[in-house]
Amino acid sequence: MIRGRFYRMSEKSKREVHPQAREYFDKGIAALRKDNLDYATKLFEQALKREPGFFECREALRLNQFKRAEKKGSFFKIFGKTTSSSLLPKGQLALRKNPIEAIEVAEQILNEDPYSVMGNKLLGEAATLAEFYKTALFAWELVMKQQPGDKGSTIKYCDALVNMGELTKAEEVITELAKAHPQDLEVLQLSKNMTARVTMAQGGYDKVTAGEADYRAVLKDEAEAILLEQENRRSEQESTAESLIREYEGRLKDDPENLKLIRSLAELYNRKKEFDKSIEYYELFNKTNLRSDSAVDRAIIHTKLRRYDHQIESVSGEEADKLTEERKAFEIEQIQKLSDTYPSDLTLRF
């Protein structure tokens, strides 16, 4: 296909991009921290022009756009809507011919109004065509914050989740959409299709058809994935959770680097309100993964906050007040630490 042949690229980390793009990015971060937002915009745009798949830079640009929007106020949003109206046809035209150009147009719209639903939709669609799947998910997440009940956007959000391998989340979202539209045959069919797609992706049949995996290994993995899914659905009951913990810990002895099992154990202990064990497994996940994961780091903080809540419920009076204040101070401190560790993660700021 012409589109795939000429426009398919890959997203890159800071270490992988061209040194010039990295230099623009570092200067942009410095300008952002000094609140020199217009200059930061130009620097981030230069970096993305050189490396369109530089995802960390795109996150930083979005943070910069939000900060600019905060400063400019309501007039800025009105002007942004005017800009969206004039640029959107150009972006839609580019979408059919050159997804990278469409991404650039989308960013022009978002520079004026980062909350623009149409701008984020254009970015999500163009990024999907360019196979910038992180960027696509990033865009559709922002769309969902503005239009949480929109059927079309929800379906595309689910597609973005599947492309990023977030299969369980995709199935949860489409199932909720089906519950909200119980009489909508199209939505019900899409829910079934998504379940089948998730099962196929989990099983790795797409890799078999592409010649990238052996079908016997895929069948083994699929059986384990289905078992894990069925067991997780039953794990709402405490007795089942306990038996799952025993089984998963037994499996983990034979497969100590299985990240799925480690994270499942962390979540199961969390549900049982055994917060110390939950934190222990989340930390083991990061250690086994050889790097910190922002989602897991957030989960650790959330678990510690739940531990505070559990302690507060069991006491009263001055002791409860003291723990409540400790909880507030801890939450502020940890969010700040996360912001410093992951400076481009917008969910820590908005």
Write a structural description.
The protein has 350 residues and is an all-alpha fold. The protein has two domains: 1-144, Serine Threonine Protein Phosphatase 5, Tetratricopeptide repeat, CATH 1.25.40; 236-348, Serine Threonine Protein Phosphatase 5, Tetratricopeptide repeat (Alpha Horseshoe), CATH 1.25.40. Helices cover 79% and strands 0% of the residues. It contains 18 helices and no strands. It has helices spanning 2-7, 19-33, 37-50, 55-72, 74-97, 99-112, 117-129, 133-146, 151-163, 167-180, 185-203, 205-209, 215-234, 238-254, 259-271, 275-288, 294-313, 317-341. The radius of gyration is 22 Å and the shape is globular. The protein starts with a helix and ends in a 9-residue tail after the last helix.
Brief synopsis:
By secondary structure, the protein is an all-alpha fold.
Total beta strand runs: 0
The span between the termini is 39 Å
* H/E element sequence: HHHHHHHHHHHHHHHHHH
The 3D shape can be described as globular
Estimate the mean pLDDT confidence. Answer: 80
How many distinct folded domains?
Answer: 2
Named CATH topology of the largest domain: Serine Threonine Protein Phosphatase 5, Tetratricopeptide repeat
Q: How many distinct helices?
A: 18
Rg is 22 Å
> How can the largest sheet be summarized?
none
- Estimate what percentage of residues fall within beta strands: under 5%
Task: List the topology elements.
Layout (H helix, E strand, L loop, with lengths): L1 H6 L11 H15 L3 H14 L4 H18 L1 H24 L1 H14 L4 H13 L3 H14 L4 H13 L3 H14 L4 H19 L1 H5 L5 H20 L3 H17 L4 H13 L3 H14 L5 H20 L3 H25 L9
Helix pairs in contact: 2-3, 3-4, 5-6, 5-7, 6-7, 7-8, 8-9, 9-10, 9-11, 10-11, 11-13, 14-15, 15-16, 16-17, 17-18
